[in-house]
Prior knowledge:
- With 231 residues, chain A is an alpha+beta fold.
- Chain A contains 4 helices and 10 strands; from the N terminus they run ββββαβββαβααββ.
- Chain A binds a DNA duplex (27 and 27 nucleotides) through α4.
Amino acid sequence: MKKTIYESPYVTADTVIFTIQDNELKVLLIKRTNPPFKDYPALPGVFLLKNESARDAAVRALQTKAGLPRQVKAGVKVGYLEQLYTFDSRFRDPRGHTISITYFALVPHDSLKINQNKKLQSPKLYPLNKPGHLAFDHKEIISLALMRLHSKLQYTNVVYSLLPKYFTLFELQNTYEIIFGKKLDKRNFRKKYLSLGLIKSTRMRREGIRQRPAQLYEFRSRKPEALKKFF
Amino acid sequence: MKKTIYESPYVTADTVIFTIQDNELKVLLIKRTNPPFKDYPALPGVFLLKNESARDAAVRALQTKAGLPRQVKAGVKVGYLEQLYTFDSRFRDPRGHTISITYFALVPHDSLKINQNKKLQSPKLYPLNKPGHLAFDHKEIISLALMRLHSKLQYTNVVYSLLPKYFTLFELQNTYEIIFGKKLDKRNFRKKYLSLGLIKSTRMRREGIRQRPAQLYEFRSRKPEALKKFF
DNA sequence: CCAAAAGTGTTGACTGTACACCCATGT
DNA sequence: ACATGGGTGTACAGTCAACACTTTTGG
Lengths: 231, 231
């Protein structure tokens, strides 16, 4: 078949995982142990195996490079995972033409247990605003992922994938504030969000802290859906 | 390098070109001359050449399979071209694992001169609603492209790429009506569209038809931009 | 009782939508 | 003269943004 005429480029899958930690939006990166870009931070990624789908490869990268638990496979622990874009410039990898099918993931911080293991490439959460150089075109990939995050939050319910099962309205509001980088009005936020019908209140309250306890809410559905109205 | 360990999948670029003809939204398809799926309609696509970018390959497919003129290269004649999605299922091509980086294009019908040539694979415009089987997963690709078209029209100015340089407000409105499949109110449409500031009126009018001549408008800019407000 | 966050309504500005008639031209 | 699409304004409803005080708890 064509293989004899056309020499395929190499194909990798790289994933941008976002999570919120310490009131900051962070990305999971590893440190490269081999050239090119040895010692630079990079997105966890792998070359596709024969007959492996890009999505499976993306998940495999999360397990083998970033030390995420196996359940990732079933989608249990990664709140959200979707294809982002395919980067295919001839010059993005000095080793030869390598296209990267990139993925975009959201994980609630409390379920992101990063396995620290000698065999892994020191996966760590990096704040987004710190400049610093990254391997390959990974900075560009992350900035595209950030744009995607912004727009997804505006017309879908995927915030659920950054929050634990139960959360307060303020924690929800805070998530938006961190990601969009601006303060929102508490009353307007509650009114609007409750009117979307995405969440329902539980009888539980967040207790044991020294203020008035807040009511806990949960999402009616934790499957991605488009909103009728914009958030 | 990795090539010895990982066997790359084949890589193709396939393009969904939309245009409006006879008050209908249509896609440009070719008829396959070889198995698999011989004689089925398919998106124009090619295997990537060594070191060729996917976008260049997509354009090459338009030229060599669909007979579009050379200017396509410079982006002159294709109003709009963007990457759509990468389809990578192991099973989409019976010949072996073949990933397809798909593109999404909009062309004004009057600048789409389809070259009919024995060497080409009978490119034709197909109405979108006709069912009929397509090669590979191309039906799925087209339906994703259609969704993308709908959303792009709502938050960007890319309609310009379906219209000739000068057009009447009614022609513009009609384009939206065809794509969204519903009638719009003339007065509201004009008010809203003019308030977006994307178009400006010219002194010219559409003459020689048997009604009152309509004013011709043109886009201020024919570069893709996101709208501040939704359309 | 004090600190800290929780919770709660109203108003004015703006935006979207529904709706009907006269106008200019070619035949 | 008539058929055809071109062109125009108003009123109501819904949505968005701005804004401040009382409540509940732990310490």
